[in-house]
UniProtKB/TrEMBL annotation:
One of its GO terms (molecular function) is zinc ion binding. Residues 401-436 form the SWIM-type domain. Keywords: Metal-binding, Zinc, Zinc-finger. It comes from Nonomuraea dietziae. It comes from the Bacteria. InterPro entries: Znf_SWIM (IPR007527). Pfam families: SWIM. The keyword Zinc applies. This is SWIM-type domain-containing protein.
Length: 445
């Protein structure tokens, strides 16, 4: 698998000598700017047991391939310090499950704000398993390592690159989640009973709908219902149920046979969220939800403006960014999507707002990560699009495709197979780009 990451070189290995821990770093991205050896946080997690369980659950997602399970590489969680909390994010190896632990139960010193990815492997997992309810848990986070110290000693983990699929998944999840609404909220006992009653088969699809203070399974996509495709993919929640204070379920307006959903457990001093792709075999990286926003001509320039206004705030307010930048809210949203393709923003369902992060990816790689958009622009540049009112003909080496601009439909095989459920095809994108160019030409004429 191709990795779209920067190269990291270490001056030497990390060492632990008695009570002295020397962490070897290779720089990072922080509010204070690039530094050779930055650190973000050092202090105590005040709710040790649920935090340790949450970190283990996050690591379980990172090392699991839910679709066609087989041994593979362990992916690395991402951690962002925003001055109030630590956000730890992870994707499954198959790219169809996104997990995030929002950790507020902290008592220590914020040394800087920024983002890094961290390795959580065997020795660290063994240390976390031994953390009990009253055990102290000291956490030190820098841009290249995550260090967890218990009474029995310290374990140091080094940073390794993230695969390209993660970057695309981060971008798609924040766009998809922004369209979700809260569909149900269950208190602790009801949440535990409901989750334990779900089928465990990884390929089973169920629909659930609110029923008073509970949730019940229904026959299909009805009003207010939420799809859980591949019910076994939320098993990572089970070890956390002993700490659960509430369960919140998010989803789009029902209407399709398969939909993505999000499941949020409220724990003492933290929240653990899972986003589940529409089907077990579909990774978030291929959903295409970002393509319409990326196809606008002004998105890249707007992203430069909005990007300069981001300062690792706990919450990104679109209205405030619109006021500061002079852009419309719709253009701010499109700019945030563009920034998302570079791993620079995520979306918090509980707070219904974006948040700032910085992943070590280059914006120049966006085109490579979105081949449909690249192909659409090539069709426009080659003169392959002919507009005719609300329709268009797109000429390709494989023949002429007819596009309805109003419906966003096409006569190509991609549209026939997916009918818009995985974003627009390259022909629809090309027609929309050409239509915008034509409108702009009329305005300036």
């Amino acid at each position: 698998m191709t990795n779209a990451v920067q190269a990291y070189s270490y001056a030497g290995p990390s060492t632990l000598d008695g009570s002295r821990l020397d962490l070897s770093t290779s720089g990072g991205r922080a509010l204070s700017g690039p530094q050779a050896h930055p650190r973000f946080f050092s202090g105590l997690i005040t709710e040790a047991a649920p935090a340790a369980a949450g970190l283990l659950a996050l690591a379980d997602v990172a090392m699991t391939r839910y679709h066609q399970p087989r041994p593979g590489w362990t992916r690395d969680p991402v951690v962002t310090c925003d001055g109030q909390r630590l956000r730890l994010e992870s994707f499954s190896a198959c790219g169809g499950v996104y997990a995030r632990l929002d950790l507020d139960a902290l008592d220590g010193e914020v040394l800087d704000r920024g983002t890094t990815n961290v390795d959580v492997n065997g020795p660290l997992r063994e240390a976390l398993v031994r953390v009990g309810g009253k055990d102290p848990l000291h956490l030190g986070v820098g841009p290249d390592e995550l260090t967890v110290t218990t009474l029995e000693g310290a374990v140091v983990e080094k940073k390794v690159p993230l695969p390209t699929r993660w970057l695309r998944g981060f971008a798609e999840v924040q766009v998809i989640a922004a369209g979700f609404d809260l569909r149900a909220e269950l208190r602790g006992p009801q949440a535990v009973r409901f989750l334990r009653g779900l089928p465990r088969a990884s390929k089973t699809t169920v629909w659930v709908a609110p029923a008073g203070r509970d949730l019940r399974m229904v026959s299909g996509p009805t009003s207010g219902a939420v799809c859980l495709s591949g019910a076994g993919r939320i098993t990572t929640l089970m070890p956390l149920l002993r700490f659960a204070k509430a369960l919140r379920v998010y989803g789009p307006a029902a209407g399709s046979e398969f939909e993505a959903s999000a499941w949020e457990l409220e724990l003492p001093g933290m929240r653990y969220t899972l986003a589940i792709s529409p089907q077990p075999w579909r990774g978030f990286s291929g959903e295409g939800a970002v393509l319409d926003d990326l196809s606008t001509d002004e998105a890249a320039g707007d992203a430069d403006v909005i990007g300069m206004l981001l300062n690792f705030e706990p919450s990104v307010e679109i209205g405030l960014l619109a006021d500061r930048s002079g852009l419309s809210p719709s253009r701010v949203r499109a700019a945030l999507t563009q920034l998302g393709t570079a791993g620079r923003v995520g979306y918090d369902l509980h707070e219904a707002s974006h948040f700032h992060r910085e992943l070590p990816y280059d914006r120049d790689q966006v085109a490579e990560l979105n081949p449909r958009l690249t192909a659409a622009r090539a069709l426009v540049d080659s003169g392959g699009v002919r507009l005719d009112g609300s329709t268009a003909e797109v000429t390709t080496p494989g023949g002429v495709r007819r596009v309805s601009l109003a419906e966003g439909s096409c006569t190509c095989e991609w549209w026939f197979d997916h009918r818009g459920s995985r974003g627009p095809c390259k022909h629809v994108l090309a027609a929309r780009i050409a239509a915008r160019v034509a409108v702009e030409a009329e305005v300036t004429a």
